[in-house]
Amino acid sequence: MFDTPLMSNLHASLAVLRPIGRANERDAVEEADDFGPWLGRQLRRRSMSQNELALTLDVTRAAVSAWVTGRAEPRPDKKRAIAAALGLDEVAVTVREETPTQAASVTWYHRPAHVDGGREFGNPAAFAFDADLSVLAREATQNSLDERLDNSRPVRMRYTLHQITGKHLFRFLDAIQWSEIEPHVQAAEDPKRKTGRVIADGLREMRENSSLILLRIDDFNANGLTGSDYDDGRFAAVVRRQLDSSKSSGDTAGGSYGLGKATLWATSRLGLVLINSTLSETHEGRRERRMIGRLDLPWHVVDGREWAGPGWFGEPDRTRGDAARSWWADTETAASLHLDRPEGEPGTSFLIVGAHDASGDAQDLPAMRDKLVRSLADDFWAAMTTGGGRPPLLEVTVVTRRDDEEGVEERVDPHVHAPVRARALRAFLNGETVDAITGPTDVARLSVSLVLPARKAGARGDAPTRHDAVLLVTPCADDDRHANHITAMRGNRMTVVDRRIGGAGVNTVAFQAVLLAGVAAGDASADLAAERLLRTSEPPEHNAWRRTDDLTASYVRGAATRIAEFLKAADVAAVTAVARPEPGGGDMPAPLRDILRLDAAGAGRTTGYPTVKDLDGHLQEDGAWRIRVEVRLPERPDAWHLVPKLRFAVRGGGGLPVEWATLVARSNCTVEGDGSLTFTPLSRSAVFEGVSDPTSHPIEAALSVAQVDLARAVGGAR
C-alpha cells in the first residue's frame, strides 16, 4: 500500500474497469457467419454451458455446438428463444449487441502455484537478453518487420515515452485496477533476487515521485495478434507462451526463437505490459481493440496463498477455471489505458508500464529518447533506406511527452544517423554502383560467394550450391565511428554483423562496407536457400552468423566453416576494393588521392607479436577439451585481430586441426562472428576460453595433447 500523503487515499477511489459497452455501428451488424463466435461469447459471460442452453431451448447439444462453431445458424424462432434464454431483447441477437453484464467486467486472473511445489523466480526467457532499451528496440522492431502486412508499403512504428504524474498517474492506476494487483507486486519484492530488486526499485520510485514512465510501441501495416486466445496463432504465441515464434514471414523472418517478446516485460520494472491489437483478419467476427494485459512476476505468496507469478487482465473465462481472455474494448476504455489506436489500421500497440533502461545509461526521458533513436538507427538504418522507386521496409518515429502534453516527435532518418552506409545502399537500390572506386562518393558493387551446404533432411540433387551475396564498399572520413567496418544483413535488412575489419588502415582508404546476403541480395532460389541457412546460424540475439544448435541439427558437417569462409572472403574483398595502388602502378585519380590517408597511429607501433602465455584445460564428460588461454600482447594503440587455432599434437610430429564448439571472451577481447578475436588496444594481456567440437576430433581427446596457436585474421594485424 502506498504510504505517502499524496497516495494515501488512492485505493478508495479505485473502481472496476467499466464492462464492455455497446459496439459501434460498424461492429453491431455482423455477417451471418459471425453469429457463432458472438453466441459463444455470450455463453461464456453468463457462465452458461452449451448443454444448459440446449436444455433450455429443447434442442440437442450438437445443434448448439453447430451454432457456436459456425457450422449452422439457428432459425429466426430459435434466435428469439436464444434472446430470452440470455436475457436479451430480440434486436440484440439480430445486431449482435454486446450488452454489458456483471460477468463481463474486466478483471485480473492470477495463475495459482504449481501443486507439485515447483517455483519460477522470474521468466527464464527474459534473462536471455538484458532489459536494455537498445535490445528492446531491436527485438520489438524486428518482430514488427516480420509481421509486415502489405509489402508495397512500409511497416510504420512509433515509440512513445510518456511520463505521467499526479492525477494522470492516479487515473491510469484506477483504469488498470491497481488495488487488485498491488498486493501481488509487493509480494514479489525480494532484495535477494534480481527480479525482486527491480520490482522493489520500481515501486519505490513510483511512490516517492508519484511518477511513472510508460513506453508505448505501436506498429501499423502489420498483421496484429490474430488467432485464438489459447490455440496456435500469433495471439497465444505472444501472450500465453514462451519459445513460440509464430511468424508469417517463415524462413525470411528476422526472429526465430520466440524469445524477443520477453524483452517487453523485462523492460517494465513492474513486469506489466498492456496490449491493444487491430487484426488483419477477423476473430470472433471483429478486428478492432482486441485487448489483454499480462503481469509477469516471480513466484510469491499473498494472504497465505502461493501464486506462480503470471497474471492476465481480461474478460473472465469460466470455461477455463476463471482464466482471463482477451476482450473487445470501446474507444473510451482504450483511451483510459493509453492504448487508443487509429481505427482500421492493422497492427498492435504494447504499453510497457514502468519502463526503464536496466543498463543505467538512460536515467531520464531525454536520455531514454536518445538511446532509442541511436539504437533504432544503428540496427535498422538499412530497413529505413529507400531507393529504386521502392518504399523503405520501415518508418520509425520516437515521441516524448509528459502528462497531457502533445509531445515532441522525431523521425529516425538513416541519412542523418548512418549517412555513408545509407548512401551506399541507396546507390545499390537505384542501380548507381560502380565496378571500381575513383571518387569519394563512389559505391563499388562486388560479389562474394557463399557455398551452400546440404541440409540433413529433404536435400535435393538440384538444390542450389552457391549464393552470390552483394558487397557494397564506399570511402568515408577517417574519423567516422564506423570507418573500416563491415555491416552484414539478410532479408529484413536488420544489422546482424557490425564489426571492424582489423589492419585495414595503412594501405587502404578509410571505408565502410555493407554485405547484403540472402533475400537482401535477391529473390532467386539460391538467395532463399542462403536466407534459410543464415537464419539458422544466428543466436537468440541475432547479432552473428556462427555455429548454433539449429545450424548443426539442420545442415551437414562443415556448415559453420562455410559461413566463416564467406565472412572472411567479404573482408578480403572490401579491403581489396579500397587498397592503395603500389608505387609505379600509374597515376591515381585526384579525388581518390585527396582522401587517402596514412595510418599515423601505426607509426609508433610496438614491435613483437602476441603469444600464448598460459594454457590450462581439462577434458569434459562429453569428450571435449575445455581450455583457458592467457595471451601476452605487445602494447600498441591498434587492436590485434587474430584467429585462435586448436590442434591435437600426436606422436610423429605435426598437429591435427580441430574446430571450436564455443569461444568465450573473458578479458580484454571480444569474439567476432567469424570465430576470430579482437583484442582491446593498449592491453598487455587478455584471456579467452574455448571448448572443442567433439565431432571434429581426428582422434580421441584422451589420447591427444591440445595446442593453441594464434594466427593472423584475414585483413587483420600481424
Quickly list its features.
20 helices, alpha+beta, 5-stranded mixed sheet, 12-stranded mixed sheet, 718 residues
Task: Characterize the structure shown.
The protein is α+β, with helices and mostly antiparallel strands and 718 residues long. Helix content is 26%, strand content 25%. The model is unreliable at 1-33, 99-104, 252-258 and 584-607 (pLDDT under 50). The strands form 4 sheets. Strands 1, 2, 3, 4, 5, 6, 7, 8, 9, 10, 11 and 12 form a 12-stranded mixed sheet that branches. A 5-stranded mixed sheet has the order 13-14-17-15-16. The chain contains 20 helices and 26 strands. α2 (35-45) crosses α4 and α3 crosses α4 (61-69). It starts with 24 loop residues before the first helix and ends in a 6-residue tail after the last strand.
